[in-house]
Amino acid sequence: MKTTEKYGKKTDIALSLWVKLARAYYTCAKLSTDNIKTFGLTRPQFCVIECLGHQGEITLTLLSSKLLVTGGNITLVVDNLEKEGLVERIRSKEDRRTINVKLTSKGEGVFKNIFKKHADFITKNVQALTEKEQVQLGKLLKKLGTSLKS
């Protein structure tokens, strides 16, 4: 008897899905992280640059929320990117307690230089699925993720 054949059909299916989802995620994440390292960035640094490159200036709190990391973690990543001259902090004029962050011109250059390359890398990695299957999987994963938040 296989491990996944002893907890009842519903549980066996859920466990099998979980294992496949976890393995696919970790494999994709490792490949993505390895590609990001070729740009001389850590994954969190890339994520900040990517987010700011698409969103523009946002608060540290919103940035932290979008990247699903703690405030302390985002502060450290932004500190390091600021030392490299890639981002800058700006105090909000409306509320001085609020700190916004945005890419510098150097940071915008880095974003424009690396994001398309990384996007092409990701596109190549998901080619095992047709475009229709990619859309379908995306919808299913969103449905699953959204249901877990409620």
Detailed description of the structure:
By secondary structure, this protein is mainly alpha-helical. The chain has one domain (31-138): Arc Repressor Mutant, subunit A (Orthogonal Bundle), CATH 1.10.10.10. The protein contains six helices and three strands; from the N terminus they run ααβααββαα. It has helices spanning 9-37, 43-55, 60-66, 71-83, 105-125, 131-149, and strands at residues 58-59, 87-91, 99-103. The chain has a three-stranded antiparallel sheet. A hairpin with a 7-residue loop joins strand 2 and strand 3 (99-103). Helix 1 (9-37) packs across helix 5 (105-125) and helix 3 packs across helix 4 (71-83).
In summary, what is this structure?
The protein is built from six helices and three strands.
Give a topology summary:
Elements: H1 9-37, H2 43-55, E1 58-59, H3 60-66, H4 71-83, E2 87-91, E3 99-103, H5 105-125, H6 131-149
Antiparallel strand pairs: 1-3, 2-3
Helix pairs in contact: 1-5, 3-4
Structural class: mainly alpha
N-to-C terminal Cα separation, in Å? 36 Å
Q: Give me the side-by-side strand order of the main sheet.
A: 1-3-2
- The CATH superfamily is identified as Winged helix-like DNA-binding domain superfamily/Winged helix DNA-binding domain
Number of domains: 1
Per CATH, the architecture is Orthogonal Bundle
Tell me the name of the CATH class: Mainly Alpha
Compressed to H and E, one letter per element, the order equals HHEHHEEHH
Alpha-carbon Rg, integer: 19 Å
Strand content: 5-15%
The average pLDDT value, as a whole number, equals 92
CATH topology: Arc Repressor Mutant, subunit A
Helix content: 55-70%
Q: What's the number of helices? A: 6
Reported for the largest beta sheet, the result is:
3 strands, antiparallel
